[in-house]
Amino acid sequence: MKLIDEFRDPALARRLIAQIKREVAAHPDIRPVRLMEFCGGHTHAIFHFGLRQTLAGDVELHSGPGCPVCVTASRDLDVAMALADAQPDVILTTFGDMVRVPGSRGTLQQLSAGGADVRVIYSPLDALALAQTNPDRQVIFLGVGFETTAPGVAAALLQAERAGTPNFSVLSLHKLTPPAMRAILDAGEVALDGIIGPGHVSAVIGSDAWAFLPEDYGIPCAVAGFEPLDLLSAIAALVHAAADKAPGVFNTYARSVQPGGNPVALRLLDQVFDVRAAAWRGFGEIPTSGLTLNTAYAHRDAALRFPVEVASVAEPKGCRCGEVLRGVIAPSACGLFRRVCTPRNPIGPCMVSAEGACAAFYKYGE
Description:
Blueprint: H1 2-6, H2 10-26, E1 33-37, H3 40-48, H4 51-55, E2 59-63, H5 68-71, H6 74-86, E3 90-94, H7 108-113, E4 118-120, H8 124-133, E5 138-143, H9 150-163, E6 168-172, H10 177-187, E7 194-197, H11 199-205, H12 212-217, E8 221-223, H13 228-244, E9 249-251, H14 263-272, E10 273-280, E11 284-293, H15 302-305, H16 321-325, H17 349-352, H18 357-364
């Protein structure tokens, strides 16, 4: 509790808010300072602590594609569903949010209700243990996540090799975050003055991974944690950089993030994965933004071991998740939001995931 209290000090929060407002007032040409938080955890924290409302008029916060469940392409979800339904000896394992994301054939949850063996697990090591206790079944782990979760999947694959567990494989839908940020800036659909860098991702890849933002785009980046003072410190750094016209990378989450990242996690990624292009919902294909199992682990690549054919599918009619993920619109601008699309009846993944922007807007309101 002491650590949490330290980063929720109301007096210090008030001072940071006042500092931000003073700096913007002293430089009216930058009002409002337009920032994007990449991380879905940041989106929910910003709403939970009322930072959007507190800073309204001075700072404009856009939510980016910071939810790996949300950016999973519909076709990739259909591949996972086809794998679960392809043969009776398959057990498809996944994290909880994925089972409720709608694909063209419904959801994995509905597929499970129809007889497919789909199981929610909490770690890829749980999926490996399941394979070891069910040697007559093929266990596929649906690998969804950014750089944060991919090292855990790599570790599970290494352990499967050491243990000689032949019936464990992975469908890797892992995504890399910096290429998506490039795609947003290159598209030019939303004007931004700074980026709030994702804390958990940056703990793996390091704050230096965002150096391309000031170098190539002239935009500052501040890596942030998830407590109010973390976020306010990052916003204050970005406002100051905008006022001074001095972009850089600012690590305001130094207790967890190092400039070069986590070398152990990065080595795991290098051992198991190759970088490739990947399809993102709302973006299309982004070069060098996905992770696929390399040649040494291709025998555990579920897409190669169990090839299935699925057609390309259109997004649900009226769903604007793609624009929400790119930060072009707020969820409330979608005609389905709150009227048709709700947590009980999600039309798109941004309403399903615990990190989705639509779920945050629905829960906390404007």
